[in-house]
Amino acid sequence: MKRVDDFRLTFGKKEFVPILVGGMGVDISTAELALEAARLGGIGHISDAMVNDVSDRRFDTSFVKDKTRFYKYNIDNADKSSIKFDLAVLADATRRHVDATMQAKRGEGLIFVNCMEKLTMNAPRETLQVRMASALDAGIDGITLSAGLHLGSFGLLADHPRFRDAKLGIIISSVRALQLFLRKNARLNRLPDFVIVEGPLAGGHLGFGMDWAQYDLATIMAEVLQYVKNEQLGIPVIAAGGIFTGSDAVHYLEMGSAAVQVATRFTVASECGLPADVKQDYFRAGEDDIEVNTISPTGYPMRMLKSSPAIGAGIRPGCESYGYLLDGTGNCAYITSYNRELALHPDGKNIVVMDKTCLCTHMRNFKCWTCGHYTYRLKDTSRRNEDGSYQILSAEHIFKDYQFSVDQQVALPALVEVD
Fold it and tell me: Which of 23, 330, 355, 356 is the most exposed, having the fewest neighbouring CB atoms within 10 Å of its CB?
């Protein structure tokens, strides 16, 4: 019976344990989590989502406070078009985050940064280019392009000295998305180094409509693998979304996947950035406590816990401090919904916004509990303490369980004696 450790992900002449830990944003996939994956021979992800805030937390900078102070005059204004990101500050924050992570890297694995196209930041092209270029400047091993088709992203990097050196890949949910990407970038003569196929059971934003349940990862993987083979592209294809055990991973590796990307089980790792009490909410979740809704201003459906405080919250848009989802004209779907409710309740009291949420503020405050489909199985991966809480796991324990487990088994952590 095969284990994940019987396979290897190959980039050029180097081999890696075929496990990628996904890039959960706003420092949920912390540097510590990514570093553990790399130390163990796999690939870890950090994220550049809300990187100014992440820098403030990691390095005691004051980027968010400074931005809030600068745009304080606009807080009560419904028009957010004047709010811009200082590109020099954005570059500084990105370089700090990436450089500190890369300086701390040990082991034979790699560190990638997850870069979301949907972080439009009132200047989609300019801010995306700065984030990607600054990450390459700071020595990141690779960039995973996510949350969007990224049809122009390679073009933004074409003049960077590391454009053909760093590992550049993209997350897709269909063969058509890959075909569009390759067609758009054909003139650059630069294929992606890897393609991650994310199925409908993934956590957070989904690359599907509300009909997501009609799709399955195995079918999409087979289609993408066949297309890559027929076109003789030689691109490693990586399966992601709903891969809960080592045996699940082996299934995809045997069908031709070069590796697997996993994240849900790492949400309850000690190295994960979620607060301790939120990790317990993930452990306690039942299958009926998880939903796919449309409250994200990005326009993508989003999987999350129904108990997320972000659902139904009616807080004032925090664009002066954040504003990561403002489009190129300074608009965001949450602002529209909030202003609609404010017009109905001009006193500003007891505002409830059900159809959208202020994703920036709630993600920053860990109140938007996005999760994978199998989050309800997390309780089966740990031990329950006498007080009803669950034992927090180490990233190494989870990684090695994926790497060495067989027959759909999940290794429980060592029993901790409580005095």
Answer: 355
Mention every residue, 6+ apart, whose C-beta is less than 8 A from residue 51: 90, 93, 94, 97, 131
Q: Which is it for strands 302-305 and 204-205: parallel, antiparallel or unpaired?
A: antiparallel
Pair of tokens at residue 193: 């180094």
Nearest to 215 by CA among 119, 292, 115: 292
Check pLDDT > 60 for residue 341: yes
Classified as helix, coil or strand, 20 is strand
Answer whether residue 357 is part of any domain: no
Structural domain count of the chain:
1
| Cα 74 from Cα 122, distance rounded (Å) | 15
Indicate the pLDDT class of residue 281, thresholds 50, 70 and 90: very high
CATH number at residue 227: 3.20.20.70
Helix (H) or strand (E) segment spanning residue 115: strand 110-116
Give the contacts of 250 (CB within 8 A, at least 6 positions apart). 2, 3, 4, 7
